C-alpha cells in the first residue's frame, strides 16, 4: 500500500501539480501565524507549547481519518494515503522556476533568469552572472527537493504513515516561519521549532546525501560530505550541498560560511579556521557551476528518486511475500 500510495501521488502530481499557494497550505500558514500570536510571550517554553498544539491539531485528525478508512475499507485508506502524500509532496511545486531559469540561461537571457531567481529565492540577484545564477538555482533545487520529496518519503514510511508525512512538512515549515522572518530572528519562541526539525530531519538528510552519492560520483560525494558539510551554518544544508555537488562534480555553496559568519573578516583568521591539521584543502572539489549544472541536477534528482522507489518496491515485495 505504501509503494502504491507514493507512486499514485507522484503520477497525479505530474499530471496536476499542486500550487505552492493552494488554499490548504494557506490555512496551515494562517494557523501557524495565529499560534505564534496566541502563544509568543518571549519564552522558549511558549514556542514548545505552540509547536505541540499545532502538531496535535493536524496529526491527530490525520491519524483518526486513516484509522476510520482502514476499518471501513482498505481502499479508502489507500485513497487517504494518496491524498496526504499528494498534499505533502512538492516535487513540482517550484520546478517551474527551475525549468524557466534553465531555459532563460540556455537562450542567453540572463535578465529573465535573474528575475525568476529573485522571485524564487527572495535574494538580490541584480549583479549575478550566469555562473552565480546557476549555482544558486542548483543549491535551491537540491535543498527544496530534499525537504519536499525525500524527507516526506522517509516519514511516510514510518509507523505513523500519513501522519508522519504531515509531521515532517509542518515541522519544516514551522522551523522557517518561526525563525526566518525579520521580527522572529533571535526570538526564543522559535528555538524549539528549529531544534525539533533538526532531529526530525537528522536521518532523512543523511539518506538523501547517501542517495546522491550512490547515483552520482560516489567518491567525490562522500569526500565532500565528510570534509566540508560541517562548515555550513546549517548542518543539514551543508550535507545536501556538499554531497550533491560532489556527486555532480560541481562546487556548490561556501564551505567557509560558518567561520566567516562567526569570526571577524580577517583573511588569515578565516583561512586558519577553514584549513585543517590533516592538510585538507580549503576548496570544495569539482568545477565551478555552469548552465550545464542545471541539467545535471535534474538527472541527479530523478536518479535518486528512482533509487528510493526501487528500494521501496523491493521492501514492499519482501513484506508481501515474507
TrEMBL record:
Pfam families: CobD_Cbib. The chain crosses the membrane at residues 49-68, 75-94, 149-168, 300-321. Signal peptide: none annotated. Belongs to the CobD/CbiB family. PANTHER family: PROTEIN AMPE. Converts cobyric acid to cobinamide by the addition of aminopropanol on the F carboxylic group. This is Cobalamin biosynthesis protein CobD. The gene is cobD.
Amino acid at each position: 500500500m505504501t509503494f502504491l500510495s507514493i507512486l499514485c501521488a507522484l503520477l497525479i502530481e505530474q499530471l496536476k501539480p499542486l500550487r505552492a499557494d493552494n488554499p490548504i497550505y494557506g490555512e496551515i500558514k494562517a494557523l501557524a501565524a495565529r499560534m505564534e500570536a496566541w502563544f509568543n510571550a518571549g519564552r522558549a517554553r511558549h514556542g514548545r507549547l505552540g509547536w505541540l498544539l499545532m502538531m496535535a491539531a493536524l496529526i491527530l485528525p490525520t491519524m483518526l481519518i486513516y484509522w476510520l478508512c482502514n476499518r471501513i475499507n482498505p481502499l479508502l485508506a489507500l485513497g487517504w494515503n494518496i491524498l496526504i502524500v499528494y498534499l505533502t509532496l512538492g516535487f513540482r511545486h517550484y520546478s517551474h522556476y527551475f525549468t524557466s531559469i534553465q531555459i532563460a540561461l540556455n537562450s542567453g537571457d540572463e535578465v529573465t533568469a535573474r528575475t525568476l531567481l529573485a522571485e524564487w529565492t527572495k535574494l538580490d540577484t541584480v549583479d549575478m552572472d550566469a555562473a552565480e545564477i546557476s549555482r544558486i538555482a542548483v543549491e535551491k533545487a537540491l535543498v527544496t527537493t530534499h525537504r519536499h520529496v525525500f524527507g516526506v518519503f522517509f516519514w511516510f514510511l514510518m509507523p505513523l504513515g500519513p501522519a508522519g508525512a504531515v509531521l515532517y512538512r509542518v515541522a519544516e515549515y514551522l522551523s522557517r516561519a518561526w525563525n526566518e522572518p525579520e521580527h522572529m530572528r533571535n526570538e526564543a519562541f522559535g528555538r524549539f521549532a528549529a531544534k525539533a526539525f533538526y532531529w526530525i530531519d537528522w536521518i532523512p538528510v543523511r539518506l538523501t546525501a547517501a542517495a546522491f552519492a550512490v547515483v552520482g560520483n560516489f567518491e567525490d560525494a562522500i569526500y565532500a560530505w565528510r570534509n566540508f558539510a560541517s562548515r555550513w551554518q546549517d548542518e543539514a544544508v551543508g550535507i545536501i550541498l556538499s554531497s550533491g555537488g560532489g556527486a555532480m562534480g560541481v562546487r556548490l555553496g561556501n564551505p567557509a560560511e560558518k567561520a566567516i559568519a562567526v569570526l571577524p573578516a580577517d583573511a588569515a583568521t578565516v583561512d586558519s579556521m577553514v584549513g585543517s591539521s590533516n592538510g585538507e584543502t580549503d576548496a570544495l572539489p569539482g568545477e565551478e557551476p555552469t548552465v550545464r549544472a542545471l541539467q545535471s541536477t535534474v538527472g541527479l534528482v530523478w536518479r535518486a528518486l528512482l533509487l528510493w522507489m526501487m528500494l521501496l518496491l523491493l521492501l514492499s515485495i519482501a513484506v508481501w511475500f515474507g
